[in-house]
UniProtKB/TrEMBL annotation:
Reactions mediated catalytically: N(6)-[(R)-S(8)-aminomethyldihydrolipoyl]-L-lysyl-[protein] + (6S)-5,6,7,8-tetrahydrofolate = N(6)-[(R)-dihydrolipoyl]-L-lysyl-[protein] + (6R)-5,10-methylene-5,6,7,8-tetrahydrofolate + NH4(+)
Protein name in UniProt: Aminomethyltransferase
Keyword field contains Ubl conjugation: no
Ubl conjugation as UniProt keyword: no
Family: Belongs to the GcvT family.
Binding positions (substrate): 201
Domain Aminomethyltransferase C-terminal residue range list: 287-367
Lineage: Bacteria, Pseudomonadati, Bdellovibrionota, Oligoflexia, Silvanigrellales
Annotated ranges, domain GCVT N-terminal: 12-268
GO molecular function list: aminomethyltransferase activity; transaminase activity
Assembly and binders: The glycine cleavage system is composed of four proteins: P, T, L and H.
Length: 374
């Protein structure tokens, strides 16, 4: 989509424009990619606190007597292990084990679940759920247009959040949530995020988005808050080895190939994609998602070809994500390669503007010293 007329706008679009954000098309939305600069915003989140508009993300309600059993069938993680007030990282898979979407599930009640899905997958995900939903016992609601979402991320995020909510926030554990008011507005207050830092994500009515955004920026001045765009969000998540749907996983990669084996629970009852994934686990993977560091100043970008560093130099895969790391001062990325080339310490060649540049396969995550568990 190339024209702003065709792009959706979040409830905070005018706020971004007034702050001088550089706006770009993303997943069908007109979104801020940066304000003060990607590196400046990235370091702000690592050192103090940053504010992200993530209202383009989708929100579904799944409720009713059969909600748990339905979500167990639709997802690869074990939804039964989520307690009320807890969140879980999860994913939908197709019958062939490839990924429909990665999601977060919040359990609001015994038979009440709130799902956050990726912006470019809202319609697809809802159709996928609706296609498999039992005719009775489960109620599906697409609430995406009703909600705005703001992420407050960084080591000082708890201090900022404590100033604007009417509930006790200090004891809220990682991947848990509570419900209260933010600046007087009812909201879901979740200790989740995608930056590797202590952080919170707020879900609240879209109609009051500007009020809450402005309030957070004003109150957050004491903590060094800055508005942050998609550029910093991408470099922050990449340093932590977090996956981006559409880059690092999609309907051509299985949950195991992209590294989601840690949430794939084969000991639960049947779920969509289970048989293929189990067979793949037993037979072994032909390709894997690896992390790499460049060995010089070259930058490996999404889509670049990857070659074996052995004498024959065969093409063995492609980069799914890559950028400079502002925290580590290295050029890093993730790539799909044939399994025999995925061993830690292996050298690979990356083709950049017609020249092959050396890189090394390393362990994820690249960055391990964030405040996320603080």
């Amino acid at each position: 989509m190339s024209t702003t007329e065709k792009l959706k706008m979040t409830p905070l679009y005018e706020e971004h424009v007034s702050l001088g954000a550089r706006m770009v098309p993303f997943a069908g939305w007109n979104m801020p990619v940066q304000y003060s600069g990607v590196v400046d915003e990235h370091k702000c989140v690592r050192n103090s606190v940053g504010l992200f508009d993530v209202s383009h993300m989708g929100e579904f309600n799944v409720t009713g007597r059969g909600a748990l059993e339905f979500l167990q069938m639709m997802t690869i993680n074990d939804v039964a292990k989520i307690n009320i007030g807890q969140a879980q990282y999860n994913a939908f898979c197709y019958d062939n084990g490839t990924v429909v979407d990665d999601i977060i599930i919040y359990r609001r009640g015994f038979d009440s679940f709130f799902l956050c899905v990726n912006a470019n997958n809202i319609e697809k995900d809802f159709a996928w759920l609706k296609e498999h939903c039992p005719k009775q016992g489960v109620i599906l609601e697409n609430m995406s247009d009703d909600y705005a979402q703001i992420a407050i991320q960084g080591p000082k995020s708890r201090e900022l959040i404590a100033k604007v909510v009417d509930v006790k926030i200090t004891d809220l554990a990682y991947y848990h949530f509570t419900e209260g008011k933010v600046l007087g507005t009812p909201a879901i207050i979740a200790r989740t995020g995608y930056t590797g830092e202590l952080g919170y994500e707020l879900y609240f009515p879209a109609s009051v988005a500007s009020k809450i955004w402005k309030g957070l920026l004003q109150i957050g001045q004491d903590y060094g808050v800055k508005p942050c765009g998609l550029g910093a969000r991408d470099t922050l998540r990449l340093e932590c080895g977090y996956l981006l749907y559409g880059n690092d996983m999609d309907n051509t990669t299985t949950a195991l190939e992209c590294g989601l084996s840690w949430i794939t629970k084969f000991d639960k009852n049947s779920f969509i994609g289970k048989d293929i994934l189990l067979r793949q686990k037993e037979e072994g993977l032909k390709k894997r998602l690896i992390a790499f560091e460049m060995q010089d100043k070259a930058i490996g970008r999404h889509g670049y070809k990857v070659f074996s560093a052995k004498e024959n130099g065969n093409e063995i895969g492609f980069i799914s994500s890559g950028s400079p790391s502002p925290t580590l001062s290295k050029n890093i990325g993730m790539a799909y390669v044939s399994s025999e080339n995925a061993k830690l310490g292996s050298e690979i060649w990356i083709e950049i503007r017609g020249e092959k540049k050396l890189a090394t396969v390393v362990k994820k995550p690249f960055f391990v010293h964030g405040s996320v568990q603080g």
